[in-house]
Write a structure and sequence with these properties.
This protein is an alpha+beta fold and 343 residues long. The protein has 13 helices and 10 strands.
Length: 343
């Protein structure tokens, strides 16, 4: 596809002076890429392949943008993002819903590829998104295996529900065959995930540290290894926000609303939830923490979310300091005190 320059029809947004940093938005489709810049209204359209991306990289190297924003589009953005990172250009992959909220806030109600590219450039300028880091081939492979396993587990759940609602014996037999095939594939993926983790020294050590915590099994450990590369490199508040277990205020004037969690990495949070439910039963530190919250009259769901946040913070500290569960100060103090506190 030959690149085409055209004028972006954009709404009234504060002008950017020539001396200002340049922010770039790239709207990704299966076959093409639309690029918009904050310093002019020209739109560049190229093919979504190495040749087209090469044109973008050549242009952006001369421009030296402060940030390039790309939406997560289910995989169509991967080649672009990887090549931009290889070219040492600052790129951030963001959630499309966040970009759409900004568009509504800017009173941009229309939606098209050129407009989306322009909004992405404004998102880069206003939202200061976290830059994406280059992932190793093993981490990309592990992420793909984890994602595939998650999809198969969801399919198994759907088929199991269908079986319960099916009165036909023949239909149930057919579903049973599907369930058996899904079980076999999930078992195969579990073996492949374990083999990949054991073949990588960094993954193996990280997995060993994480699984030393009571309640942390292979599914949570592999999910954190694959999808939370920030674990151990940031503080407990930031890691809680990344996973989506940080409480946000809901206040206005004298009104004090209930704090609630939102955003973050939903799939990771779902796995963490199930692991925490188990950990509250078998992990003495979390069990004591949950009991103290229950004594204060906290609702069950609030207790679980608080335990999720505490478990994640402890795992973050373990990875940061390369400590196993029993080496944590909070665990040593808990064991030295003789167990649960009754305050």
């Amino acid at each position: 596809m030959t690149h085409v320059a055209s004028q972006v029809a954009s709404p009234n947004v504060p002008a950017v002076t020539p001396a200002s940093p340049v922010f770039v938005g790239i709207d990704v489709a299966k076959d093409k890429l639309d690029l918009a810049r904050s310093d002019n209204r020209q739109l560049l359209t190229v093919s979504n392949d190495e040749k087209g991306i090469g044109q973008i990289i050549k242009l952006l190297r001369d421009v030296a943008p402060a940030c390039i924003v790309v939406e997560a589009t289910g995989g169509f953005e991967r080649l672009l993002v990887n090549l931009l990172i290889d070219a040492q250009l600052p790129v951030a992959v963001v959630n499309p819903s966040r970009v759409r909220h900004l568009a509504i806030g800017l009173n941009i109600l229309a939606k098209s590829d050129p407009i989306d590219a322009f909004v992405l450039s404004q998102f880069a300028r206003l939202a200061e998104p976290r830059l994406t880091q280059k992932r190793s081939a093993n981490q990309a492979e592990l992420d793909a295996l984890i994602t595939c396993r998650r999809q198969l587990v969801a399919a198994r759940t759907d088929q199991g529900n269908c079986r319960l609602a099916t009165p036909s014996k023949v239909a149930r037999q057919s579903i049973d065959k599907v369930l058996k095939a899904l079980d076999l594939q999930i078992e195969l993926l579990d073996r492949k995930i374990r083999e990949l983790i054991n073949s990588d020294d960094d993954f193996k050590n990280l997995d060993k540290v994480l699984r030393s915590a009571p309640g942390v099994g292979p599914v949570l450990s592999s999910t954190l290894v694959a999808e939370v590369s920030e674990l151990g490199t940031t503080d407990r508040k930031q890691i809680s926000a990344l996973v989506g277990v940080a409480p946000f205020d809901h206040d206005s004037g004298n009104f004090r609303g209930k704090r609630s969690i939102r955003g973050g990495r939903t799939q990771v949070r779902n796995v963490l939830y199930m692991a925490t439910v188990a950990a509250i039963r078998c992990n003495p530190v979390l069990k004591d923490f949950a009991a103290r919250l229950a004594k204060k009259g906290k609702p069950a769901k609030v207790i679980i979310v608080a335990c999720m946040r505490k478990l994640l913070a402890l795992l973050n500290a373990m990875v940061r300091d390369n400590l196993t569960w029993d080496q944590l100060n909070v665990v040593k103090m808990f064991n030295a005190s003789g167990g649960p506190r009754h305050a």
